[in-house]
Structure formats: C-alpha cells, structure tokens
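Appendix B, Record 12. Input sequence as logged:
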Amino acid sequence: MNPALSDKQRLLDAAAGLAEEAGEVLGLVRKHVMQQRALDRATVVEELGDALWCLAIVADTLGVTLSDVARANEAKLRDRHPDGFSAGT
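Logged structural output:
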C-alpha cells in the first residue's frame, strides 16, 4: 500500500488495480480457450493473487473484511437462488 495516498486515492487506485488484474486473468483464459494457447497456471495464480491484493485493499479502505464481503455475497446468492442454482433459473 502506498502510504502517501489519501483514503479516496487508495480506494481508486485499488479498485482500478482490481479491474486491471481481472482483465489480465481474462486475457490469459481467453487466449487459452479461443486461441488454444497453453494455460500457464502459475501466471494465472500470480494474477489472481494481484487481484486478491487489490480486493483486500478496497475492502480495508472501506472498513470491511474479506470475510464480510464473502458473507454478504453468500447471503445475496442465497436470496437470489433460495432453492440452489440451476441453469433454468
């Protein structure tokens, strides 16, 4: 984390970083699926780690934990799919 950034700047920097890192994961997977390139799992894991770091910084800046984020997402999905997910719903 860059200590010179204000909370707003850190939030923007981490959110933008999250989008950038997600784009890098997408690019690797897209090339694997659409262009039959070998999937370098180590590189995907590295990029996922970068995305996780950015996600953690966004959450921390907002004063929530990754556990809070996971619980909220689980509750949202449970409300959306009370009988479990199926392709037809």
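The mean pLDDT is 95.
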